[in-house]
Amino acid sequence: TGVMTEVAESEALATLHRVFGYEAFRGEQEAVIEHVVSGGDAVVLMPTGGGKSLCYQIPALVRPGTGVVVSPLIALMQDQVDALRALGVRAGFMNSTQDFDERRTVEAEFLAGELDLIYLAPERLRLESTLDLLKRGKISVFAIDEAHCVSSWGHDFRPDYLSLSLLGERWPDVPRIALTATATHATHKEITERLGMPDARHFVASFDRPNIQYRIVPKADPKKQLLAFLQEEHAGDAGIVYCLSRNSVEKTAEFLARNGIAAVPYHAGLDSGTRAAHQSRFLREEGLVVCATIAFGMGIDKPDVRFVAHLDLPKSVEGYYQETGRAGRDGMPSTAWMAYGLNDVIQQRKMIQSSEGDEAFRRRAAAHLEAMLALCETAQCRRGQLLTYFGQDDVAEACGNCDTCLVPPETWDGTVAAQKVLSTVVRLQRERGQKFGAIQIVDILLGRKTAKVIQFDHDQLSVFGIGEELDEGAWRGVVRQMLAQGLLAVEGAYGTLVLTEASGTVLRREREVPLRKEQPKPATSRGSSSS
Ligand code: ADP
Ligand code: ZN
Question: Could you tell me where the Basic and acidic residues compositional bias lies (predicted)?
Answer without folding.
Answer: 509-520
